[in-house]
């Protein structure tokens, strides 16, 4: 049998003395879209940061297509196939949109032309500086920049947070195209559980750094008791 795309086994990680992730184990198949849910402060960002090597991992293993990623320095993980769109977006403010996209890239299916096709607004704003973009455009740029690295697994940390409904729809469509059209595997962290569940095949729920629930996304969508208990019901929620 071939290796899973991603396999975490018994991962404990945190910051300094603070333990956050507690015995986290799960695996993902090639092309799978996984929702990572949980209330504020439960460890979602810490899990993505651990995949990227930005936390202190005490024990456990992380394998990407069978390769032991936990031994790789953080700056090597993008080249190993992990794409990261951080919660803060981290656009380079003094570079143009196009420079932000082309400053780092790896050859593959995603190039400037395809990123512009996915986000026509970015092409319209190609000469604008990072600081001159709306929140939604910055998010598109952050995703586009991660795509330019042609990852095998894309980590998206609350990409819809704080955006207007029309932009949420535009980004959701783009994420669906990445997953269904392109077969890109993603881990999608999202407070708006119903949107995340609609875009993914499977879901895991974190509470205080532990996985407390896992289910197919379609089943969790109907499981109101579990959603209420661990996620907080924000049905069809939109930040007002
Ligand atoms: N750099 C850090 N140093 C120390 N503790 C941290 C750091 N970042 C996060 N934490 C702590 O780790 C725990 C998990 O935080 P994390 O950011 O992973 O939660 P989250 O689920 O992403 O929350 P949110 O939905 O608010 O983004 C929290 O108790 C938080 O205070
Ligand atoms: Mg977070």
General description of the model:
Residues 235-240 have low confidence and may be disordered. The radius of gyration is 17 Å and the shape is globular. Strands 6-7-8-3-9-10 form a six-stranded mixed sheet, sandwiched between helices. Helices cover 34% and strands 27% of the residues. The chain is of the alpha/beta class. It has helices at residues 44-51, 77-80, 97-102, 112-118, 120-124, 135-148, 165-181, 193-199, 217-222, 224-230, and strands at residues 6-15, 18-28, 33-37, 56-64, 67-68, 82-85, 153-157, 185-189, 202-207, 210-216. The protein is built from ten helices and ten strands. Strand 9 and strand 10 form a beta hairpin. It has a domain at 6-84 and 153-230: 3-Layer(aba) Sandwich (Rossmann fold). Bound molecules: adenosine-5'-triphosphate (ATP) and magnesium ion. Adenosine-5'-triphosphate (ATP) is lined by residues 15, 18, 20, 38, 40-46.
């Amino acid at each position: 049998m071939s290796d899973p795309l991603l396999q975490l086994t018994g991962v404990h990680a945190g910051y300094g003395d603070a333990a956050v992730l507690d015995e986290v184990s799960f695996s993902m198949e090639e092309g799978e879209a996984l929702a990572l849910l949980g209330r504020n402060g439960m460890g979602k960002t810490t899990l993505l940061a651990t995949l990227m090597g930005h936390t202190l991992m005490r024990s456990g293993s992380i394998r990407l297509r069978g390769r032991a990623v936990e031994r790789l320095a953080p700056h090597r993980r993008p080249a190993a196939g992990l794409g990261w769109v951080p919660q803060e977006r981290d656009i380079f403010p003094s570079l143009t949109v196009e420079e932000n996209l082309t400053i780092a890239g790896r050859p593959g299916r995603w190039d400037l032309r395809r990123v512009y096709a996915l986000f026509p607004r970015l092409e319209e704003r190609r000469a604008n500086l990072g600081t001159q973009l709306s929140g939604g455009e910055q998010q598109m740029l952050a995703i586009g920049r991660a795509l330019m690295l042609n990852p095998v697994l894309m980590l998206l940390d609350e990409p819809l947070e704080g955006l207007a409904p029309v932009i949420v729809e535009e980004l959701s469509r783009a994420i669906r195209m990445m997953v269904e059209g392109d077969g890109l595997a993603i881990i999608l962290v999202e407070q708006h559980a119903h949107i995340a569940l609609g875009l993914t095949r499977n879901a895991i729920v974190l509470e205080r750094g532990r996985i407390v629930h896992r289910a197919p996304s379609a089943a969790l969508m109907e499981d109101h008791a579990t959603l209420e208990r661990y996620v907080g019901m924000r049905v069809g929620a939109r930040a007002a």
